[in-house]
Amino acid sequence: MRPRVISHMITSLDGRLLPQRWNLAAQGWAESDIEQVYESAAAQLAGDAWLVGRRTLAGYFAERTLPEFGPPVGEAALPFIGDRQGRGIAVVMDPAGRYCYDAATLDEDHLVVVLSTRVDEAYRQSLRQAGVSYTFAGADGHDVRAALESLGKDFGLSRVLLEGGGIVNGAFLAADCIDEVSTLIVPVIDGIAGIPSTFDHRDEGAKFPHALAQLKLTAQQTLEKGVIWLRHDVIRSPGVTAN
User: Fold this and answer.
1) Structural element, H or E, at residue 146
2) pLDDT tens digits for 53-83?
C-alpha cells in the first residue's frame, strides 16, 4: 500500500508558481507572509512527510559531476534507512543523484532521496556515510509508484504532501498517484507563457488524449488577504484503485 498523496501548492489565479513575480508589496504582502499561509495550511493537512522534485532545491546543495549510469543493480538496490531521530521526513526526487547531500536533514526533517537503481555505488555510499536515507524509482528513476510503495513499506509513511515543482507534480499526476489536490490561490494573475505551473507534464507520444484527473470539491475557505483555499479529491473510475 502506498501513502495517500496530497498535492499542496500555492499559485497565482492562473496556476503559476513564482511568487517573486507577483508584486506582493502592492498588496501589502511580504514573501514571508505567503510562506506562513502555505505552511499553516500544510500543517492542517497533517502529512507525515513532504516531497519535492530536484529543481525545487536548486541552490540548496552543491551539484556533482555525474558518472555514466551503469546497469540496473536489481535486487542489490535495497533502500537505506538512516536514523530519523524522531524527525519528520523530507523526500527529494533526484533520479540521477545530482546533488551532494552532506547532511541527513532538510529544514529540520530527515532527508530521503529517491534515486534510479543505476546510480553508482560510490554515490550511494556517500549518502550512507552522511546518514541520508534513500530508496529507488526503477531503472530510469521515474517509477513514481515504486518509490511510493517503498516510502510506505520501508519508511512507514501514510500521508505525503507533494509540494512540487510542476514537473514532479505532473509526473505523479500522469502515474495516477495523486489522491487529493490542495490549492492556495493568491489574488494575482501572472499571465506570461512559459512560467512554471502547478502541473507541467509533457505528454510525449500523446498518451493522454483527455484531462489527467477529474476532481470533486471537498472544501473551500477564504483566508487572509483574499487567498482562496480549495481542496479536491481525485475521482477515479469504478474499479480503479489508488494502489
Assistant:
1) helix 144-153
2) 999 998 899 999 887 766 666 556 799 999 9
